[in-house]
């Protein structure tokens, strides 16, 4: 942003982009609700915003994940499946424990956002790094 507003050299802008790519995507919780028909489980809803070109570290989810793209284009790949780019109005499912090896904003210039609906154990995190 400073590079665009201040007219700083393109090299500084490229440095800012690398910093954005290295930073974590922004996860904003919307709702956490226990579900009586599945004791010990919660439904979690969150928005996940990716800066232009931003990539998430490979990870997994202890519970089921349903993702819905609300803005931009997200490239997503689960281990053992081909990568796919999803646009606004499209979504995907990730079974519990699946390795999410690619999750990135497919655009180098526009932000992207997804809404995530997760079912997870009461004390489970929504996302965990993949252990090698």
Could you describe the 3D structure shown?
This protein is mainly beta. It has a single domain (24-129), classed as Jelly Rolls (Sandwich), CATH 2.60.120.10. It contains two helices and ten strands, in the order ααββββββββββ. The protein has helices at 2-6, 10-22, and strands spanning 26-34, 41-50, 59-60, 64-71, 74-78, 84-86, 91-94, 99-105, 112-121, 128-129. The strands form two sheets. It has a five-stranded antiparallel sheet, with no helix packed on it. Strands 6-5-8-3-10 form a five-stranded antiparallel sheet, with no helix packed on it. A hairpin with a 6-residue loop joins β1 and β2 (41-50). It is globular and about 45 Å long. Mean pLDDT is 85; it is low at 1-21.
